[in-house]
Design goal:
homotetramer; alpha/beta; Rossmann fold; Dihydrodipicolinate Reductase, domain 2; 2 domains; seven-stranded mixed beta sheet; six-stranded parallel beta sheet; 20% strand
């Protein structure tokens, strides 16, 4: 049994991680930290945890001290110093924030207005999308857990780009996310009567996940890829659906495409390439670590349409973090993640 | 005061039309027909209408007989004979179904598997999108009321295509619709626990509204336009949001685009081109005849993104039908349609 | 045409009142005030109002000055001085807050921790539930617009209590309300992921509407009535459903009860006593000024169960305020309120 | 490892049971039967199960044959013969339907219009509410799994009634249920646009769970108890909230009440008596086998108000069935049920 600490345990990704780790066969939660609720039992903040976890919330320092692995669930800009401390103490560090996701400092500066405090540390960090970068993850102790949108998009487009069957130009990604993606702090946009019974786009072409998406897709293509990315807010609690459009190159028909995807993911426990004539939907992946992908070709316009669905809080955040931890500690990659999505 | 009849009054578009006509200053409802509920008061089928409208449901023949204007709210394939009868009796006919929307019989055959029973009649029919084809509507007595998706898409892209600032190739349209778009018949897909807390695409690249969309956009461009169109089912009652992506031609910047749209719609009471930095959302148009359009340019990728929102049951169906009726009878075009969308 | 001002126009009840007054045939909105958004057009705060109302938000003083009738949509404790000013200037004043609803100052002190600043003023105020107190409303210029829960409950139980067919002891009221009842300020409880897909009671036995409910029911019974009142928060935007339980006295059967209610409300345009074997539901009254009441008798236990449904923002707030205004100014009581609830 | 079969596996309670049993450490699913989908893999009926369970649906006979324990998830009236067959073969039988819940045949006749086919068999059946009847369950092989409403109500009121602190007269129960309670067959009432954004009561005073509720409460009181029971349909997928009102007897104050409940449930892993000043809500129990109970006293009216929340599909159906199976087979009672409710 290893000991795990969560920094920022009372945010939505933090508490979801608590839930997952409580059921993990190889992990004991050692500490949960929170600035706002310091000293309170977490079950007072989340009554859903009553009788399941009543651990008192500690400070960040104690959390780092007590964990063999430290998860940070913090707003961007707050993880770099903790990562350095963990590195100094040779602890595994998994960052659910954005600080280590971008490889180029200029991208981080442009999109996040921040700097890399310790460039060497950033070089050690690995982008933790296991299905694509498992081997590198095994060799690091600092994992940058991917964003929710980027996970759904990378899994949907990586096989096609890496096999060169779609054009790298003109990719359009229309994503839809549940409200938990915005976190727990109440705002006007997430006030029930303001988002219920509605849907609208936000940060059109300017969302901070854009460089992260392009970084991975460029690796897939072996050439720079730019995408048009538009996220939308859905009136559901959980889940992301990404509808990804790309120009299909000549010669690539439906069977070929399907073959490529099925081959690419054939050993992946968490990616389900859906059967022909079925479509990915949030309903089928909720509360699980699955990412469903449905493949479509609009032969009238020569367009490849990959649709991916995942739970933004699980495969898009806490579940993927557990998956990364499993890799770091050589556990079975599905340990603690054998969650079956409820039918409703 | 004119007399209006509704055939198929107990479907969702039919009952919405009842609601609108009951408040129309120049119209008296003369007859409501229904096959399933013949002889019952409509308020028994829809208790929301109690004390507002308790008219007994009659048969189709009586409905045609009694109306100066006849609205048909029927599944496709059932309007052609009624239209012929109305034409013979010189009554105005407004079809909320699909039978008269496509100008080319081969398109109708390909997408709807049906034939034009009377080709002359089809020549007389006009596609009733007032903002684009008002002058032709004035001259007909047979109006093909547009589909909900096509209305949202045509209004979003017509100005840009007609001014030649976007490419006619590679247009992608990602639409999201509320569940009322599927009608009142219970199905597994629209069963509450199956669609609540989820979203998924359907009829990817194969939705019957596609040829109707392309017909209008081709007119705008003065050249054939093909689009990739993917509709999605949203867990909301009403509303459509269409996010439309097109390649911006060189030289067309944000100000130019905005100028074109504001000029195009400056006298239109029902189209609101939104201010810079705001986005169209279903919330702001629900229960009204407005179509909101927000304009975006992703300069990183040279993509024009027009987002349109409307109420699928009002501007996307019954409201537009009333607007067409107002045109046919030379009423003020906003008569009975001065509906202000509630804030929530 | 009279001139109306709204103080606190950017809260939920305020903006709903704006929407209703914009369609009122005898009213012109003269001024809208707001502290938070002073100087901005209201359509910037509520984009739903674009092109329908772009009036600039002024201060309270200007609002009082300009109106023949002044509506206050303010938190409790803030209306008394405005009422005094309106009285001094002989303007009609309609308070959508709680300051003038309770007749006894000790009740106000106990439940609201406040005092009556001017006892004479309070004596002039009339509790504005038109179906019960129309004659008194006609004679005042200060109307205390009832709370949303109290309206639904008073209309459900007044006839039975006034006719003496139910016991005044042991009345239980289980009410359920949509989230707009909590106002527009974002809070954790009204944050989308916290209230969506859930329901729970709040302020059990301690809600401030309790004395207001008891005040009206005591008048009905001609004797003191105490009730057990438990409100619940529902994951819907609008609407209140109150399920009211009372011991049926001997001799009062179903037909008698129905007769009493139908007689009591026979001339009321906004109260619909539903047919036997149908039940009140929020769906059928949303966006309208109707209050639906269904009558049930559980003969196994001798219990009378009246269920009432209304839109908390219309008959429970802004619509009833307009109804009161219509009475004060001798307009047709339904003017501006002929809203037909949409079927969905 | 024991072998479990589910008859009627494709209904909502059936598939939820599949989900739970797939994670159970001591159980292997041996067979799943379905009439409608015979021969298909269950993952075709529920794509959420892809890669988790692709078992082919068999017929009832095969299911009985293969299981050490047989669960029946069938409409009432269809379990008696299967129970007899299981009894003959000495297999454990757990009925999620209503056939064995009522002890008196006259009650079954009155409320379900059915007869007890084999009276001896009925005598062997035990009502499977473990917190109340654990000892009897241990001794049977036929378990009548309680209804969802009755579970929530029995747990809320049993302690108070058995300790005699509330009156057995005048009990009022106002319950609210999610839509999955109505099953998977599409109907008008459960069609998304018909139940979304609404709430209404149904089967007022006539719901078939009434005699089952009274049977248990009468045992608690040691005297006949009749209740007024009104269920309501909520626009949520899962969950039941029951607000239970009873006259508090003299001398029983808040502390006493709390003491009784905490004592009563102190060793129960699935019942959480909530801390003072917090309220039960569906959110905190969803997807878990917990039943939360909050205790309130309205001292103004002398009313005890117990509010209970549970997941209708888990503690109200499939979870409780697993709990009963655990008891029958002497497994740890929480095996396969250590589900932590997600925070959102």
């Amino acid at each position: 049994m290893i000991k795990a600490s969560i920094i920022g345990a009372t945010g939505y990704t933090g508490v979801e991680l608590v839930r997952l780790l409580l059921s993990h066969p190889k992990v004991k939660i050692a500490a949960l930290s929170s600035v706002s609720f310091l000293g309170k039992p977490i079950s007072e903040v989340y009554p859903s945890l009553l009788s399941a976890c009543q651990m008192e919330l500690c400070d960040e320092k104690e959390a780092v001290e007590k964990g063999d692995v430290v998860f940070a669930c913090l707003p961007h800009g707050m993880s770099q110093e903790i990562a350095a401390e963990c590195a100094a103490k040779n602890k595994a560090f998994i960052d659910l924030g954005a600080d280590f996701r971008l490889e180029k400092e200029e991208d981080y500066m442009q999109w996040y207005k921040g700097a890399f405090l310790d460039k060497e540390l950033h070089k050690k960090a690995v982008y933790g999308l296991p299905e694509l970068f498992r081997d590198s993850i095994k060799k690091t102790k600092i994992v940058a857990n991917p964003g929710c949108y980027p996970t759904s998009i990378a899994l949907a487009l990586y096989p096609a780009l890496s096999k060169g069957i779609i054009s790298t130009e003109g990719i359009v990604i229309d994503s839809k996310s549940g409200v938990t993606g915005a976190g727990r702090t109440p705002t006007l946009n997430t006030h029930f009567p303001e988002c219920n019974e509605s849907v609208s786009p936000y940060k059109v072409g300017t969302h901070r996940h854009t460089p992260e998406i392009e970084q991975t897709l460029s690796k897939a293509a072996g050439a720079p890829v730019k995408v048009t990315f538009v996220p939308h807010l859905l009136p559901v609690n959980r889940g992301i659906l990404s509808t990804c459009y790309a120009k299909l190159k000549e010669g690539a028909g439906e069977e070929k495409v399907r073959e490529i995807y099925e081959e690419f993911y054939k050993n992946e426990p968490f990616v389900r390439v859906l059967p022909k004539d079925t479509q990915a939907g949030i309903k089928n992946v909720k509360f699980s670590n699955f990412c469903d992908i449905s493949l479509n070709i609009d032969s009238r316009t020569g367009t490849f349409i990959a649709v991916s669905a995942l739970d933004n809080m699980v495969k898009g955040a806490a579940g993927q973090a557990v998956q990364n931890m499993n890799i770091l500690f050589c556990f079975d990659e599905t340990a603690g993640l054998t969650l079956i999505p409820p039918a409703f």
